[in-house]
Each structure stands twice: as structure tokens, then as C-alpha cells.
Amino acid sequence: MDYIIKTQDLNYSYHNGQKALFDVDIGIKSGEKTAVIGHNGSGKSTLFLCLNGINKPQKGDVFFKGKEIDYSSKGLLNLRRSVGIVFQNPDDMIFSSSVRQDIAFGLLNMGFSSSQAEEKIKSISKFLNLENLLDKPVHALSGGEKKRVSLAGVMVMEPEVIILDEPGAYLDTVNAKTVYKIIEGLSQKGKTVIISSHNMDFVLNWADSVVVLKDGKAVFCGRTEDLFLNNELLKYACLDEPQIIKTYKMLINKGVIKINSPVPKNITDLEMLIK
Amino acid sequence: MINSVYVSEYIKNINPNIKAVFALSVILSCIIFKEPLGCIFAMSVMWVIIIKNCRLSKHLICHIVLWPILFIALSSFMVSFDIANYRGEVFSLKIINNYFLTVNAQGIKKAIRLFFTSAASLSTMYFLSFTTPVNDIVYVFKTIKCPKEITELFMLIYRFIFIVLNMAQSITTAQNCRMAQRTFKTRINAMALMLSSVFVLSYNKSLFMYNAMLSRCYSGEIYFLNQKYVSSRKFVILAVFIVFTVVLISVLERIY
């Protein structure tokens, strides 16, 4: 199968000896929307850092476009041009004195000139509605603005794969909706988007495929619908069943819809099914 | 607070090198001559420029002026005191044997000069802070060929000041919610805990930040955007005139 990112027997331990990932085998297809789910401390963030080459696994391999990651500085630079990562806490991402400077950081590292970077900043700030914030100091931004700036800093580099670690964290519903809209926009542009989330309803609605991590092990990697119909696995991985799936199962039990009806991803799908 | 103040486009877009040279010249003129009238002129001009170009509330002006001025006044006041084995002209207080805590006319003069020099320098620094964002200061560092390590450190320290302050504030609030202010002992204990936590947390934060930098192709050097600035002839003439006037007033004051 044609995977853009693939891991094989991936093992990673922290410096203090604590094991974070055990024999993780996952594959992510190009242009697909993938959600990585699991409880806190299951290894989601560590896995993301391995995919970006920041964490070098002690055992096993990570493949990007079929090639093993080259951990030389040149190889890592090439990988990071193609695989961008947005951290959970935007305060960890933003370190420059102004928004403009922060968005330019990755571009200037990639070798773009100041004028080329300015052009790209202009277009990304228009897309993310950051035009009025460009000259603002970063500490004066609100949580939602910081999140959008951290997204802009990665999106402006135009990577093929964008990893977002809990994009809805620290945000109110309005700002979270804006961020999810941006993520949807990325998928529509053909980018491979990988996110981690605790919101199962969102995962069901958004993701094409899911990776489930439990205590550092990948216990599932496959279609979203297949996961949420597997009660045993959900229980084992301590995951909630999405509301839509609960209703879907209830309607099957009551004979309102047929047993083999397609799994609804959202309320509209469910409504169509009932009709 | 200073960063959120509206600054007119005119002064903001002026080449920061010109603003830095202007501010430095005024400060140097005040420090070299230490003449109160020259310093008062410099101080007044700086505040006129600040108020004319920046939208400052009265509250903010009071907040940023009051405490530093009080501190300068107190420090200058202390300078007027001396310990000598003779009585002072203005004031004397016997401390031990033949030694007195004294205040002389010379001491008062020195204190006044120090107060006005410091106040003028402070006002000039405020002018620079209000009209020149940190990015522009980085531009000045680059122009004077400051080692890149210092420039990068300056930028990261600037960012960390706010991160550490936020952390300290959050921890203090959490402690206060749990009655950390009950007695003097609990207060001291809470402060010690807060400081140690802030130290550990900021170390962790720096690791996260380093990872974030690596993920965006950082390879050991931070590059800065080249900004476009205006070299306003009008401002240069005004700056030269102000510096010249400060020097002239100070020289005349010294002569007469």
C-alpha cells in the first residue's frame, strides 16, 4: 500500500529509561485525514515527535514516502520541510518578539529571502485572518490568536504532512470551531493531516482513519467506522463511544434502521439514514 | 503594557538606527554635562514627542512614571548624605565618636544633578521603548554587528520574561486560593515554592520551545526578517536640533 508515513517496530524510551512507545506499526496514506487517539500519557505526542525526526527511536524505523528517515542534519531539514508539527500549547511554539517574525521563522530557516517570506506571510495571514496582528508582540495575543499564529508558522512552510497535537486544546468553542475549519481547509487542499484528539464525535466526523494508542502500543490502525463499532476495543483502550454511534446502535436495536446500514459520521448522515 | 500602546505610523516607521543614535546622544549629553536645566529640557522634549505620537492614558503615564521617579528621588536623596568626622553645613547627626551623618550643600547639588540626569535618561529610554518595538532593536543590534548569540539571547530572554511572569502569576494565584498569605511564614514558604517551581517549569518550557524550533528547520541560527524603514530628514533635523540644544543649554548653565 502507498503510505506517506509508516512506522515499523517503533520503540522509544526517554532519557530516564521510561518507555513511551513499544513496537508501533502504523501507516498513514497520502492525503488522508488521520486521528491519533488514546488517553493521556499513551504516547501520542512522543509518536508525533518521532514522525518529525525530533525523537530518534532506539529501535525500529520511521519511513517517509517509502524511505527511511535520514537522521543527518541535512536529512532532518528535508524531512521537516515536508512534515510540519503544531504543538498542543501555542506558547511552546511562539518564541519571536512579533507575530510577523514568528511566522517568518520557518521560512527564513528554509532559505527564503525576507521579501519572499513577506509575500508568503501576507497570503497566510489573509487565510488565517491574522493581518491585523502581524506587528503585535506575541505576549499580547489571546489564546485563540496564539493558536492561529502557531498554525500559520507551520502552514506557511507548506509541508505535505501537517501534524496537530490536540488542536482544540486551550480553546473555547468558537475558537476551536475556527481551528477545525482551518484543518478541514488543509485536507481539502490535499494535505495529509494527522491530529490527536479526545473528542470522539469530532474524530468520527472528521477522520478517514484512526490510530489508537494504549500505554505506548498501537492497538488499532484502520478505518474510523471499524473502530467505533468495536465495543471491546473501545473498552480496552478506555475510549468513549461517540453520541452518533450510540444513537445508531440504539436505532438498530429498536429496528428503526437496518443492521447493515452504513455507519453515520454526523447528525446529517443519521437523519438521512432514518429518512 | 508598553507594547500595546498605539504609536503613530510616522515615528514607528523611522529607521530605528536613527532613533537609537538620537536617544543615545541625548543620554550621553545629559550624563556628560549633568546640568539640571539641560536635563529638564531633554526630559520635556522627550515627553512631548511621546505624548504627541503615542496614545497614552493618564493611568499608564502615572503607572510608568511614578515608581521609577520615586526610586530615582529616593536614591538621589541618599546620595546627598555623607559620613564625615566634621559637622555638615545643612544637617549633622552624631553616629559614633567623632563621626557624623552629614548633608552639605555640595551633596544636595550632587543629588539634584543625579536626579535630573537619571530622570532625563529614563524619559529618553521611554521614548525609545514606546517608538521602537523589540524587532527594531534587533535591527539596531544587527547594524552595529552585535554578535548573533547576544541578539538571539536578547530575543529569547525578552520572550521568556513574559512566560516566566505568567507562570509566576498563575502559581501565586493558585497558592493564594489555598491561603498561602495566611501568615508571614506561609507567605515566605509559598514564595520559595513558587520560585523553585518557576525555575523547573521554565527549564521544561525551554525544552518544548527548542523542539518547536527544531520542527521548523532551526539549525543553530535564528534569522530575522529585514524590515523596511524610512529615513526621515525632518526627524533627523529635529533630532540634531534637540541634541544641540541640550548641549548648548548645559554649556551655558555651566558657564553662568
Q: Please, what is the average pLDDT of chain A?
A: 91
Largest sheet of chain B: 3 strands, antiparallel
The name of the CATH architecture of the largest domain in chain A is 3-Layer(aba) Sandwich
SSE class of chain A = alpha/beta
Radius of gyration of chain A: 20 Å
As for the CATH topology of the largest domain in chain A, it is Rossmann fold
* Shape descriptor of chain A: globular
Helix content of chain A: 40-55%
Strand content of chain B: 5-15%
Distance between the termini of chain B: 43 Å
Q: Quick one: CATH class of the largest domain in chain A? A: Alpha Beta
Which SSEs are present, and which pair or pack?
The complex is a heterodimer of chains A (275) and B (256).
Chain A: E1 3-13, E2 19-29, E3 33-37, H1 44-51, E4 59-64, E5 67-68, H2 73-82, E6 83-86, H3 90-93, H4 99-109, H5 114-127, H6 143-155, E7 161-165, H7 173-188, E8 192-196, H8 200-206, E9 209-214, E10 217-223, H9 224-228, H10 231-236, H11 243-253, H12 267-274
Parallel strand pairs in A: 3-8, 3-9, 6-7, 7-8
Antiparallel strand pairs in A: 1-2, 1-4, 4-5, 9-10
Chain B: E1 6-7, H1 9-12, H2 16-33, H3 36-53, E2 54-55, H4 58-79, E3 81-84, E4 91-96, E5 99-103, H5 105-131, H6 134-143, H7 148-177, H8 184-215, H9 233-255
Antiparallel strand pairs in B: 1-2, 3-5, 4-5
Helix pairs in contact in B: 2-5, 2-9, 3-5, 3-9, 4-5, 6-7, 7-8
